[in-house]
Amino acid sequence: MTANQSLTDQDIEFKCIPWNNPDQLRAIIIGQQVDFSATPSNLAAIFYNRGHQLSLLNISVWNIMWILSNDKKLNNVAVRHPASS
Q: What is the average pLDDT score of the chain?
């Protein structure tokens, strides 16, 4: 959305402000430097619990879950059934 500015016909401009750590993101949000933000869900919960006036619009889970293993033969999460004897 930032790259193609798809909502300029509605007088909405997107700007990406990269942040380096959660404390910096908290300062940006509390300082009202942004109108909306993509944040980790735990940070949204912290804001809520501290009484900040924010609205949660979405919890995105696509492409953020990884399964790690030291088994070099494991290359998917399909259920393996033992061979019948």
A: 80
User: Taking the C-alpha atoms of 19, 25, 27 and 32 in order, what is their torsion angle to the nearest 10 degrees?
Assistant: 100
Q: What total of structural domains would you count in the chain?
A: 1
| Residue range of the domain that includes 81 | 1-85
Residue showing tokens 């501290």: 50
Separation in Å, CA 2 to CA 15, 39, 40, 49, 70: 6, 16, 19, 30, 39
Q: Which residues contact 33 (CB under 8 A, 6 or more apart)?
A: 17
pTM of the model as a whole: 0.54
